[in-house]
Amino acid sequence: MTPHTATSASHMVSSADVNGTAVYSPKGEHLGHVDHLMIDKESGVIAYAVMAFGGFLGLAEDHHPIPWKKLSYDQTLGGFVTDITREQLEGAPQRGENWREDRTWGAATYNYYGVPPYWI
């Protein structure tokens, strides 16, 4: 699935079009895809792209929230590029059941990926 930004002049894209978009390393290695987005209800900021990676044909996929700011859209690839490595994804901070409300986990995750938390 390709976001509308790849086929039109629009600067806007529907979250429905982002879901399923491929994620690549800077060298063009396919790392996974965006499963869904997490949006802060109060600020309206996209906090995380939950990335699916690993597994085979959707089975045993792992999902990790990564800071939205770690992705940039590449029209040539028709997907997002990140400097996050597969090893970093596999070693990401483990999230608890209430990770969506856990600012300690969120701060640790943003720090792990080297970007300031979106709420600061």
TrEMBL record:
- Specify the superkingdom: Bacteria
| PRC-barrel domain boundaries | 12-89
Spell out the coiled coil positions from the record.
none
Which is a Pfam family this sequence falls into? PRC
Q: List the protein's name.
A: PRC-barrel domain protein
